[in-house]
């Protein structure tokens, strides 16, 4: 989940980003099946994606939700 309340989920074709109301906002296509993901980095602007045989890291324009 990011700071805006969007849910980021692994999927067969990559990563899906869902708005709080449930509509699909976008996808990050990955050439392998994605099994897991997490936000990281100093400001939590990086998304780390674990796929079948690789780990990907991309920088986003939003950050992962902080623990209360």
**Can you tell me the number of structural domains?**
1
For the terminal residues, how far apart are their CA atoms? 13 Å
The helix count comes to 0
Order of strands across the biggest sheet? Answer: 1-2-3
The shape, in one word, is globular
The protein's oligomeric status is single chain
Helical content band: under 10%
Question: How many strands appear in the DSSP assignment?
Answer: 6
Task: Describe the largest sheet.
Answer: 3 strands, antiparallel
Order of helices and strands: EEEEEE
Uncertain parts? none
Radius of gyration: 11 Å
Structural class, by secondary structure, is: mainly beta
Mean pLDDT: 94
Strand content: over 45%
Keywords: Hydrolase
InterPro entries: 6-blade_b-propeller_TolB-like, SGL, SMP-30/CGR1_Lactonase
GO molecular function, one term: hydrolase activity
Protein name: SMP-30/gluconolaconase/LRE-like protein
Short description:
By secondary structure, this protein is mainly β.
What does this structure look like?
With 68 residues, the protein is mainly beta. It has one domain. 0% of the residues lie in helices and 50% in strands. The protein has no helices and 6 strands. The protein is globular and about 35 Å long. The chain starts with 6 loop residues before the first strand and ends in a 9-residue tail after the last strand. Keywords: Hydrolase. This is SMP-30/gluconolaconase/LRE-like protein. InterPro entries: 6-blade_b-propeller_TolB-like (IPR011042), SGL (IPR013658), SMP-30/CGR1_Lactonase (IPR051262). Residues 1-52 form the SMP-30/Gluconolactonase/LRE-like region domain.
């Amino acid at each position: 989940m990011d700071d805006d309340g969007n849910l980021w989920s692994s999927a067969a074709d990559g990563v899906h980003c869902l708005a709080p109301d449930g509509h699909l906002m976008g996808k990050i296509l990955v050439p392998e099946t994605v099994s897991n993901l997490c936000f990281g980095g100093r400001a939590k602007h990086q998304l780390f994606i674990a796929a079948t045989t690789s780990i990907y890291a991309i920088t986003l324009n939003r950050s992962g939700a902080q623990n209360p």
